[in-house]
Write a structure and sequence with these properties.
Blueprint: H1 2-15, H2 17-21, H3 26-49, H4 54-74, H5 81-99, H6 109-141, H7 146-166, H8 178-193, H9 197-207, H10 215-236, H11 245-260, H12 268-286
């Protein structure tokens, strides 16, 4: 029943996103508070059933509960909204860091890695949806062209390669300590944010003359998120420790090439996709898998 209530909060949160963009945060914060207050109850239940970690559970409940009170109070403050929002987000992220200092909760590295991997698949799936919706609108408007074929083909190559390169390394080896786990987990926020669906939609808008930005700006909307995604994977999964010189610097070289693609013409997505295919082809041909050292 608590999970159903949490899902209800998620529905309210999603329904409030359009109004949030327009400046009305009430519905979104209300839905978020419902989701998080359910977590307070869940942590209180956990504390009751796990005496050795009761203090940790109660810290989670207290921190999350206070954060929701502050979120609701922020609705009545008409100024500094951006700063308050950033401060509350940071406060939410610091709650686990504070709570785990009492008595660390138990968790399994393989399970955590699997959860994050599945969420990454969901995010990439949303990017495919964004690409398909953009292409459908183009077909309905009758603005089909070879450039759009290149964007769609490149977009698919990018999404498939991003999926492949994410699962190319054993993830659980990065989760050997609580400090490393927090860094790995919070770093995934930026990986999720670097999903390229929005960038592909921007490039489609540019190709169909529905946007007034330059070709370089449209290409950068694709290239920069991909470069961020690859860089974070390289850092979080410890690929920079690979004993093979070529394998160690393969990702950085690809990132540099990708960042230059907006200057190669109007087919940034296609060029980025081909670079990623080359990246994966090299890894397969070399037959060298990363072994954490």
């Amino acid at each position: 029943l608590l999970v159903f209530l949490q899902l209800t909060g998620a529905i309210i949160f999603a329904a409030g996103v359009p109004s949030f963009v327009e400046g009305d945060r009430a519905i979104t914060i209300g839905g978020y508070a419902v989701m998080r207050l359910v977590m307070v109850v869940q942590w209180l239940r956990a504390g009751r059933s796990d005496p050795p970690r009761r203090t940790t559970a109660h810290r989670y409940a207290l921190g999350i509960g206070l954060a929701q009170v502050l979120w609701v109070l922020s609705l009545f403050i008409p100024f500094w909204q951006l700063g308050i929002t950033i401060a509350l987000i940071i406060a939410e992220l610091l709650v686990p860091v504070w709570a785990e200092q009492a008595e660390p909760t138990t968790w399994h590295p393989h399970h955590i890695a699997e959860r994050y991997g599945l969420f990454t698949i969901i995010v990439l799936g949303e990017s495919i949806l964004s690409l398909s919706l953009g292409f459908r609108s183009v077909l309905e408007a009758g603005e089909f062209s070879p450039v759009l074929v290149g964007i769609v083909a490149g977009g698919l190559l990018i999404l498939f390669c991003l999926w492949w390169v994410y699962f190319d390394w054993p993830m659980h080896h990065s989760l050997t300590s609580f400090g490393g786990a927090f860094l790995w987990g919070y770093g995934h926020y930026f990986i999720f944010a670097a999903a390229v669906g929005a960038g592909l939609a921007v490039e489609i808008d540019y190709a169909t003359h529905h946007s007034e930005i330059s070709a370089v700006a449209a290409g950068a909307a694709v290239a920069i998120p991909v470069a961020i995604y690859l860089t974070l994977l390289w850092l979080l999964f410890g690929a920079y420790k690979n004993p093979s010189f070529l394998q160690r610097f393969l990702i950085p070289v690809a990132v540099v090439l990708i960042l230059t693609t907006p200057y190669w013409g109007e087919q940034t997505a296609l060029w980025v996709g081909l670079i990623l295919v080359g990246l994966l082809a090299f890894k397969l041909v070399s037959r060298q898998s990363y072994q954490p050292g």
